[in-house]
Write a sequence for this structure.
């Protein structure tokens, strides 16, 4: 037995492809902006407050914003994760923060906070994209 899906049953895209690109760029640049744009205020505010706070905690714990160094693959991956944090990363780089203090007891914890902030922001971007596509 074959079933035909009607237009009402199929998930409808909430945004045009061009708008989805802008949505994802906004979600990258400012954590939570994609959710705020689509009216998901509670989630957007949580992301807007939590992710930059995590990045700041990472800096306060003497974490390092990693440079792009392709000779060391793990450092390059950490740099990509840092960039995924969006505006907190940009502001940190402009203020020349995140030099990291290797001798600090909290250095590795700070690195973890900085890296995880970027990785969580990637998940937030994917969530905003799914909402924009009408999947959620």
């Amino acid at each position: 037995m074959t079933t035909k899906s009607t237009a009402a049953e199929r998930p409808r895209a909430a945004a045009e492809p061009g708008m989805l690109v802008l949505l994802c760029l906004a979600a990258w640049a400012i954590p939570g902006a994609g959710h705020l744009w689509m009216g998901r205020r509670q989630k957007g505010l949580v992301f807007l407050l939590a992710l930059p706070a995590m990045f700041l905690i990472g800096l306060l714990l003497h974490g390092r914003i990693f440079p792009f160094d392709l000779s060391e693959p793990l450092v390059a991956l950490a740099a990509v994760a840092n960039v995924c944090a969006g505006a907190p990363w940009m502001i940190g780089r402009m203020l020349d923060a995140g030099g990291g203090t290797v001798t600090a007891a909290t250095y590795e914890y700070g690195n973890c906070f900085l890296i995880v902030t970027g990785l969580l922001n990637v998940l937030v971007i994917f969530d905003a994209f799914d909402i924009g596509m009408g999947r959620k």
Summary: The chain has one domain: 14-132. The CA atoms of residues 1 and 78 lie 51 Å apart. Residues 5-13 have pLDDT under 50 and may be disordered.
